[in-house]
Write a structure and sequence with these properties.
Length: 555
């Protein structure tokens, strides 16, 4: 018997026995609801046995039998009444717990947070995707469903770019883009903000000015998907239908994944360039630090822009070197991974700067806890098969949080075992043949490419072509080679321009005589500082596909 807790007052479990009741009472349960009909299994105790054992423990037992796979609305309402009137905590059980948690979810109706319900259930091992249409019907029995030819989830770099690329090919296409945000951020610029090169305002613009005018902007959050019925479910259980769906919702920064971090961010010397409001604090700390210990961390992969954790470190060290204080500052880089950078060709150039700045490299060290007031950080250290904990002090701590797909993505049936949207890495179409109408790009998907804006720039035209191919019934799709770019800012004025695809294959955009990406160069710096921002705002987001040409496999 394993009790699974949904909230402070409700638990579910598989079949219990009379002998389990004492242990259930110890856990504080006051009411038990049995949702399994007597006689369903040869080894199943009947309800009378459980009632007799429960009476001895002062526990009330209710009997609401449900045939497997046949939960009715009437039974959900009966469960709701039992739930409301019962003493809490309450335990409901059936053979596996599935009927019980389904009854609970249906009994909550429109009052529940559908996204959180699906995610919590999935975390406990229950897939409630099948109840989504019923919850919608409960919440909006008379509502009509809006419908668009293409629905795009997310208006970040990937979402706006793919919308613009679609319109550049078919100007009359009926497109809706879903995103609740008012502000769009040029996130690659935050490293430069943290290095005192860009102002934060340079990286932000109003969303309404960037979404193409011909695209319907639906300023809501997504709660769930109903792919069998080709619907996206918005907050408030409002359905939106599509012929083709493009998911590019980005990822979620899990700040709570490190104990104590949220309480100290933006103060006590703890900062991160991964947030718009914190990047200026990074530069403030760098300017004010004249001696002491500076820590820079990198979480488990995958993360948004794998080079960003060390870019912050190199720019900081460069400033300290130019201010003649580097000799008094100890710099430690703590990387959860085992290598400095995943593509070996770029490591020699980076190691030269590691030596120049006197950086201590600590691999297989994962930040797990921070105490800002005491200025201490704890790391889990992996050595072979063993793990240990070590602690160290700091004067400045630049943190990169662990990252994952958004909750409504992880709660869906569209993801792989790690919670990322599951796609064919070549076509970026969903990997499940049941969902040929679904495509994805950007940080949310599981293709093994770098999660960077440069990757989205290459992916957007490819997805646009493939969506249109799907809509006209063709199975000839353009292929993505895994291209991603990471301008590794090693000092103010020089960058190692890493460009690579699947398997670490080097994919330089320029001839080596013009720009050698394996060596730090002034040319790459000019590209990052002066050329890439206009390419982003005025090219990529407007459907101008510079340096991109979608290719079919036969090309």
């Amino acid at each position: 018997m394993q009790l699974k807790q949904l909230n402070a007052e409700f638990l579910v479990s598989e079949q219990i026995t009379a002998q389990d009741v004492r242990a259930i009472a110890v856990q504080g349960v006051k009411t038990i609801i049995c949702n399994r009909p007597d006689g369903e299994g040869a080894d199943q105790p009947n309800i009378i046995e459980i009632q007799q054992a429960a009476e001895q423990q002062g526990i009330t037992v209710e009997y609401l039998p449900v045939t497997s796979g046949q939960v009715t609305d009437e039974q959900a309402q009966a469960f709701r009444m039992m739930y409301q009137n019962a003493k809490k905590p309450l335990l409901a059980f059936c053979r596996t717990g599935t009927r019980s948690i389904t009854l609970w979810a249906l009994s909550q109706g429109r009052e529940q947070n559908l996204e959180q319900t699906l995610l919590t259930a999935k975390t406990l091992g229950y897939n409630l995707q099948g109840i989504v249409p019923r919850v919608l019907k409960q919440a909006n029995p008379q509502s009509s469903t809006g419908k668009y030819t293409v629905v795009i989830v997310g208006a970040g770099a990937a979402g706006i770019s793919v919308a613009a690329s679609l319109l550049s090919r078919q100007a009359d296409l009926d497109i809706a883009i879903i995103d609740p945000a008012d502000i769009h951020y040029y996130q690659p610029g935050w490293t430069m903000v943290g290095g005192g090169i860009f102002s934060p305002e340079k990286t932000a613009r109003q969303m309404r000015k960037l979404i193409p005018q011909k695209v319907k902007w639906i300023q809501h959050a997504v709660a769930a998907f109903d792919p069998e019925n080709k619907q996206v479910i918005l907050e408030g259980c409002k359905p939106l239908s599509y012929n083709a769906l493009v998911i590019c919702s980005g990822l979620k920064l899990n700040w709570h994944g490190i104990e104590g971090l949220v309480e100290t961010l933006g103060k006590n010397g703890v900062t991160s360039n991964y947030r718009y409001d914190l990047a200026p604090y990074t530069w403030q700390l760098v300017q004010n630090l004249n001696k002491g210990k500076a820590l820079f961390t990198q979480p488990p992969m995958p993360i948004k822009c794998a080079g960003a954790p060390q870019k912050a470190m190199y720019l900081s060290a460069d400033h300290w070197q130019k201010q003649s204080v580097l000799k008094d500052i100890q710099i430690d880089f703590y990387n959860t991974g085992a290598v400095l950078f995943g593509v070996a060709a770029y490591v020699p150039a980076l190691m030269e700067y590691v030596a120049q700045y006197g950086i201590n490299l600590n691999f297989n060290h994962q930040l797990i806890k921070v105490d800002g007031q005491q200025k201490r950080a704890w790391f889990q250290v992996t050595t072979g098969e063993s793990k240990s904990i070590m602690a160290t002090e700091f004067d400045m701590l630049h943190v990169v949080p662990p990252q994952q797909a958004p909750d409504f993505i992880r709660a869906s049936s569209l993801v792989d075992a790690a919670g990322w949207l599951d796609v064919n890495q070549d076509t970026l179409q969903h990997s499940n043949p049941k969902y040929p109408d679904i495509f994805a790009l950007g940080d949310v998907m599981n293709a093994p490419n770098a999660k960077t804006a440069a990757a989205a720039r290459k992916q957007a035209p490819i997805v646009a072509v493939n969506v249109l191919q799907y809509l006209k019934g063709s199975e000839q799709f353009a292929h993505y080679d895994g291209y991603g770019s990471c301008p590794l800012t090693v000092e103010r004025g020089k960058i190692v321009l890493a460009e690579f695809g699947y398997g670490g294959k080097l994919l330089p955009s320029f001839p080596k005589w013009f720009l050698d990406g394996e060596r730090p160069s002034r040319m790459a710096w000019l590209l990052k500082e002066q050329i890439l921002p206009p390419i982003y705002w005025d090219g990529m987001l407007k459907g101008h596909e510079w340096l991109v040409k979608p290719k079919f496999k036969t090309d």
